[in-house]
Write a structure and sequence with these properties.
Blueprint (H helix, E strand, L loop, with lengths): L9 E7 L4 H10 L6 E8 L8 H5 L3 E4 L5 H14 L4 E4 L8 H6 L4 E5 L11 H7 L4 E8 L9 E8 L6 H24 L1
Parallel strand pairs: 1-2, 1-4, 2-3, 4-5
Antiparallel strand pairs: 5-6, 6-7
Helix pairs in contact: 1-6
């Protein structure tokens, strides 16, 4: 990524599908001095995404694409991103897999947060699998988005101990807390 010069921040879009806790974290981070990004757009694949409230709260433009026609949704998103001069994309609980063509257009400019220590437990239900397999550790990963699911180059990871008392809910909370810190750190690392 280009080095940060002066006060110019990189225009960024965040893609969400759910509660938006990582989105809220990224918005707060983007308003800080050390942040190299400016969140200019929030995209969701569902109008039911609770995280869309942060678009209103923080006065950021939001767009919903239902992906019923996948190709046309992606084409419209690309047009919108270009129009708004978006140079960087953060996926934060976005539950659609972007096409190879889409990823190519933003090569090395799309990152994602995943609630496991990749390459372990790609896809969904990561905490359930970690507990079921009696893993001693889990964690979270920030990685570049590649055509293959959860297979892009790893930027940063954080290891988290699984205790005997942990269940899916407690583990989810523990990992989410670390995701928030890791996402900020990974963005700073990319831009410096």
């Amino acid at each position: 990524m280009e080095k940060l010069t002066g006060l110019k921040k990189t225009k960024t879009a965040v893609f969400i599908s759910g509660t938006g806790s990582n989105l809220k974290n990224l918005i707060k981070f983007s308003k800080s001095k050390e942040s190299p990004i400016l969140i200019d757009l929030i995209i969701s694949n569902t109008r039911l995404a609770k995280g869309l409230i942060y678009a209103d709260q923080f006065n950021i433009e939001k767009k919903i694409f239902n992906f019923q026609n996948f190709k046309s949704s992606e084409k419209n998103i690309i047009t919108l991103l270009k129009k708004r001069k978006i140079k960087f994309i953060c996926l934060a609980g976005f539950m659609k897999i972007l096409s190879k063509d889409f990823i190519k257009k933003f090569d090395g400019k799309i990152i994602n947060v995943h609630p496991s220590l990749l390459p372990k437990y790609k896809g969904l239900n990561t905490h359930t699998r970690a507990i079921k397999n009696k893993d001693k550790f889990t964690g979270c990963t920030i990685h570049y988005v590649a055509a293959k699911l959860d297979s892009g180059k790893i930027i940063m990871q954080k290891k988290i101990k699984i205790t005997i008392k942990d269940n899916i809910k407690s583990l989810t909370q523990k990992v989410l807390k670390e995701e928030h810190k890791l996402y900020r750190a990974a963005i700073i690392k990319i831009f410096t």
